[in-house]
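Structure, all two chains, one model.
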Amino acid sequence: QKEVEQDPGPLSVPEGAIVSLNCTYSNSAFQYFMWYRQYSRKGPELLMYTYSSGNKEDGRFTAQVDKSSKYISLFIRDSQPSDSATYLCAMSVNTGTASKLTFGTGTRLQVTL
Amino acid sequence: SQTIHQWPATLVQPVGSPLSLECTVEGTSNPNLYWYRQAAGRGLQLLFYSVGIGQISSEVPQNLSASRPQDRQFILSSKKLLLSDSGFYLCAWSGAQPKEDEQYFGPGTRLTVT
């Protein structure tokens, strides 16, 4: 079993839709949770970062963490064609010095006009 | 603001040839630095990380090596490339505590070994 599971998609939605992207994990030691957006042939871009259960909102994006269920989600409201990208979840166990991230394989999102 | 550079952007190398990929960070001091490889459909795999000059930790045994000759410079090398070394190589940096979990990625180097 992989430590982090993420549905690869692709997920196709019309412009303006609410998008829900999800990851599950098995390692209860994970403390920090991140979402990255990666456009084709580019480096990942950090979108959201959270370390506690509950919701964190930033503009059209909401990150949700449920540590009891080992489940994290990213919601995108009013989706735009520019949101078309691959979304990667990542999580880490802080070792006190450097942080080692474990990534999901990514979900490809296509927002259509 | 902080900026991370990688070069070259793309590289095509024959099997058995050497490799040197470079990553530099601007606008911060004493960053943690990371090398990842991204293969199609397999997510990002952490290869090496460094918390300071000359300090390298390896995550995956392989024919790659890393060095950090200067505070903001991180180099990925190989003496002899294998076909399986093809992939998208990403360098990332993070700050000191409590920000060490926020990693910021460079634009990547796409390596094709032929």
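Chain A has a mean pLDDT of 92.
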